[in-house]
Amino acid sequence: MEAFERRALVMLVVVALLFLRAAGVFLPSPTWLVAVYIFGLACLTAASVLLVVVIAPAAYVGRWDSERERLVFLAFSLLVADVVVTAVIFAYSAYETNARALGA
User: In which domain, by residue range, is 80 found?
Assistant: First the structure.
């Protein structure tokens, strides 16, 4: 297994764990937060598809090493975008919990 494939496989495990986390969370109530949540799921889906393409044998998917490198970088960028989305959702949840606890 090449270095690209090993990195992509590790990232694919991270994406799978993030999908499991996303499946356990109920959809937030405000409309903008639902849109952000769906954007995060789309990022995870796109990252997983790109990583599967990178891991696939070259006989099935004709590609060059430079293109594979670009796809791994793009998948990593999408993964970072989902982490930012998750941080926004958790920050909003913490804010709402704090505001309700203080009675504001």
Answer: 3-21+29-102
